[in-house]
Structures are given as C-alpha cells and as structure tokens.
Amino acid sequence: MFTVTQTSCDSVLQHWKNEFLSWDKDQFCGIETITVPYDLLWKPDIRVLEFIDEDVSLKEAFLEIKNNGNVAIYKTLRIVSICKIFAKQFPFDQQKCNLTFMSYQYSTEDIQLESELNSSEIYSWSKKYIESEGEWELKDVKVFQISLPTENEFFATLVYQVSLERKCMLYVLNLLVPAAVLLMLDLASYFIPEPSGEKLGFKITVILGFSVLQLLLSGILPSNGSMPPLIAIIFTVIFTFMLLSLLQTIFVKYLWNLQPDSCLLRLFCRKQKPSTVQLKDSGNQEDSVKTVSVNLRQTGPDSSVLRAMLLEIQAVRQTVSSLQRKKETVLGLERAARALDTAYFYLYLISVVSFFIYIAVSIM
What's the rounded Cα separation, in Å, for the pair 20 and 245? Predict the structure, then answer.
C-alpha cells in the first residue's frame, strides 16, 4: 500500500510498506529507524500527470526505513502544471485545478494509492502553511481516489482538486470603478446647456479617457477561452453607450444650428402641402389687393404715389412674414432638439441601469 501525504507547501511525504525489510528491534539494540541511500531500494514511479516542465526539484539522498517495514521519503516538489482556465467570469471567476498522482508502470494489482488525510484536513493544513496566495485565494481542496482505465489494465490515481478564487478587488478599483465614473460623467453631460457649446467637447474627452482604460485592460485579459471575459463585455457595452451618445449629441447639435433656408428643410418643405390657414390668408391678401387696386383706379390719375406706397407696404409685409416663418422654424428645430435630447437621456439611463442589473445577476 502506497500513501501520499502533503506535508507543506513544497514537499510531499510518501511512505509504503516493504515486507522484506522488517526486523525485531530488540535483537538489534533497540534500533527502530535507519537511513539508507536513495538508490539502494526500490521506489514506486509516482508522477504528476499535469506536469509540463522540466523537473528542477531537489533530488532526494536518503530513505527512512522503520523496523516494521515502512519506508518513507520526503520529496521536495516544484510543480509547473497545466490547468484549463474558464475566463468567462473574469475577474470574478473561480477555477478548479487538479494535481493527479499516478504510476505509469504499475497497475492497481501492484500499487494502490491512498491519501493519509481527508479533504477538510488537507484544506486546513494548506491554509495554515500557505505562504503567498498572490492573485488567487484558496477556497477548497478535495481529494479523490480513482482508477484510470487503459486498454488492458487499471492504474491507481490520486487526484487533488484545488479550488481557487481570483481576488477581484484590484480590477474593480483600477478598471471597473473608473469606467463607471466615466459613464456617469457621460450621463451628466446631458445637463450641460446646448447653446454653451461645451457638451460635444466634454463627451469626446470622456471617450478618450475611457479608451485609455481599454488599453490597460487589453494588457491583462487572459487570451485563452472561447467566450470573451465578462469585464471585456462590460467595457464593450459601455463604449457602445458612449459612442451612441456622442452620435446623438452631434445630431442634436446639427439640428440646433440648422438654418431655416438649408437644403434639408427645403427638401422637407417641398413635400408638405400648404395648410388651409395659409391658403385662406393668401386669399384674403389677394382680395385686399384687388380692393385697393379698384379704389386706386377710382381715384384718378393722381394715384401713382399711393400705388408706390402700397407696393412698399406689401414688400415690408412679405419681409416680416418671411422673418416670422424663419423664427418659427428655428424655434421648432430647437424644440425638436430638446425633445430628442430628453428622450435619449431617459433611454440611455434606463439602458445603463438594466445592463448593470444584468451584470450583477450574472456575477451572483
């Protein structure tokens, strides 16, 4: 029977029983334990299945033998292993990595692997002696004893499943909080008065600041995984919100500064039929002109001065009417711009709140 016991963060205790190495301590001066050179005895070829790098661990020099035949060895291990990372929830992700101990030569008929400690004991021991967690926090350690089937035989396997949780506070403070602040500033820009001309420049500055955060994010995102990380989705959606807000601001700025005699309005007005009120006013004007003309004919040849005055009055009246129509057109454009700005602000706010609620539910 072969047992693997993890004794510290970088060493493993392996012990097994050799039936041919027992003695009676009373016959040998009470000697219970002896130490022999490492290469003197048979040792099981236990390897870590996930090991992917050259073994640079210290080589053992001695084996410890007890009088009952138990052989023990403390192995110092430095393992560089492979672990499949699921980065969809990055930086709020939890990963599970395995350390699989097995023999490549001896089947279950020759070697049985067991763990001396159960899962809770291994976890408590690991939390007690771990020196540095770095970016990860140890959440749990579980041990499984299974038999790995091959074509003709089964091989004993001991699997240590290590559950790790990424420490997300650094990413939240350095990336997510500044991104949320810039998004709130973009929302607050709708309270800037449109005639001041500061709104468009402010939005462009906010987008440039957000682009700097995206450059920082691209350098730390994990490159593996078929699904994009959660933080990348958050940044992409926020950037899309800001870009649509900028385009809407540009369109509102265009409406605000649109001239009444612009080509766009002329094309639009050609499609509009004159209203009945305008037709009635024009009819009244023609009737009044005819009446005045008839009266002028009745006054005789001295009516040339009055006729000239009438033409000047008509010209002034047309100019005033044209200016009035232009003013009404400008006021209508301003009202349309304000209504569009207000409607998009509420739509923007509802979309942002809904998106963050969705992200919170996904994380939980």
Answer: 82
